[in-house]
Amino acid sequence: MKRSLQLSILCIGVCLSLAAQDSHYWSQQFGTRSALLSGAVLGGANDNSMIFYNPGALGYLENSSISINASAYSIGNIRVENALGQQADFESVQIGSVPLLAGGMIRTGDEKWKIGYGIITPVDFSFKGIARLDNSYEVIDDTESPGLEELVAEAAVTTKTSEIMLALGVGRQLNDKWSIGLSNLFSVRSHSYQRNFSTYVFMNDENRTLVGANQNQNVEYYNVRYAAKLGLVYRSGEWSTGLTLTSPSINFFGNGTLANNIAVRNLKLVDDDRISGVATARQAELKSTFKSPFSVALGTNYTKGRSYAGIVVQYFNSIDPYEVMEPMPGTFVRPAELAPELQSDRFLRNRAGAESVLNVAIGYEHQLNESLALLASARNDISYFDESLNDGPGIKSTISSWDIYHFTAGVNLDHRQSSISLGLLYSTGNTGRYEQPGNIDPSNINLVEGSTTITEARYGNFGLLLGYTLNLDRRTNSNDLE
Question: Which stretches of 148-249 are assigned E, i.e. beta strand?
Fold first, then answer.
């Protein structure tokens, strides 16, 4: 009786990225105090993180120039059980640092108008893993190769996704209760993905015939896009409420490369004779497209004595699947007579898309004295991964598809014209429906690309947030809302 074997995937990463993933909108939070509150500051905060959260609150800022720098350091663990088989793991260790926000304000002649700028890192995700299997199994029918065959298999995945966003915002205070603003968001996205999969079987015949296959996939591109965020703030007494509308992105420019190479040796397809051949294609300088959805956010903040609380709800619209790059048809299989109907564009396609998402964040701050405050927050971070992207041929370059829940606690120390923030971060998530390609099952082996299995994925992350804020021409305490 043939035995079944599966490889498992394990990623243990040390990366400074606040549990950043490649299919989430809220992995990163920005600023110092705002990050400790998980972004539950739509009603306004006295720092230029409002350029990102709600430009409508810029009109209320009392500081003529503010500079914020914050970094997050974290250790994360990704585990996908039985993803490639039980006897081989993927492992990945990464160390780095990510600035969450750096920016400032520009002085204007009219105190009602405020202009700000900021550079943020909304996405920073990397994964490297390799798994290897070397053992004997019953792979080939005994009529050709009696007994167990020696099988050597290896899989490797390397991917990195990052975005840098430049935000230019302007806000105007209309009166004591109303303020409006607009942020222009310019995003530069870079993505690289490589997957290598190889299997080799030695037949038990006179020649010890080698049967095997290799597959190498590669996606690399950069893209520049623009979106506008309109913000509105209403303040009355102890309450402040904010509303933002973010437009779908407009694609500016970008290009990239797609490659898919398959080589087989002495492979038997159904009842045909064993064949050898290659299927290979590479297309460079392809125009790239990446889309961000329309979103709307509503939040309110309440200040009473030394306590400050906030809640925000943000809805992200869905995006229909689309081609990140559009390859041209061409010869894929060589010799061509092996499969003339197979064209390269079908196997090079790399699609993206997004399901609709609703995220919620709550934050609380208690001022112990004039200088020291305690902060805590929680938020969900629903994955926008569209499972329909798993259907059909092509290169599937997204790793994460699980929902994440973030918890943050820390302190903010105010001192004259500066403040320091220190926080601890914890994130967790899992899914029982993770689709993982490349499973090795000798009882029904696909030597070319393995098989796709449904497995369980678990995610955990611990992190440290360090932030520093410098306020110039400071007029009010950074925790005051009015």
Answer: 149-173, 178-202, 210-236, 239-246
Q: How far apart are CA 306 and CA 375, in angstroms?
A: 12
- Which residues does the chain have with pLDDT short of 50? 1-20, 81-96, 451-454, 474-482
Q: Which residues contact 164 (CB under 8 A, 6 or more apart)?
A: 119, 120, 121, 187, 188
Could you tell me the residue range of the domain that residue 33 belongs to?
7-472
How many separate domains does the chain show? Answer: 1
25 belongs to a structural domain: yes
At a CB cut-off of 8 Å and minimum separation 6, what does 408 contact? 29, 35, 36, 37, 38, 375, 376, 377, 378, 423, 424, 425, 426, 465
Of 196, 194, 287, 300, whose CA–CA distance to 241 is shortest?
Answer: 300
Question: Whole-angstrom Cα distance, residue 97 to residue 159?
Answer: 17
Beta bridge pairs of residue 254: 223
Nearest CA to 221 out of 263, 268, 163, 180 is that of 163
Angle 208-212-215 from CA coordinates, rounded to 5°: 165
Distance (Å, rounded) from C-alpha 79 to C-alpha 227? 34
DSSP 346-378: HHH-EEEEE--EEEEEEEEEEESSSSEEEEEEE
Nearest to 19 by CA among 32, 28, 7: 28
Q: What is the pLDDT of residue 452?
A: 44
Q: What is the CATH number of the domain that holds 27?
A: 2.40.160.60
Angle 144-146-149 (CA atoms, 0-180°, nearest 5)?
Answer: 95
* 472 closest CA partner among 66, 48, 113: 66
Q: Is residue 2 part of a domain?
A: no
Q: pTM for this one?
A: 0.85
Q: Which residues contact 315 (CB under 8 A, 6 or more apart)?
A: 295, 296, 297, 356, 357, 358
CA distance 364 to 38: 10
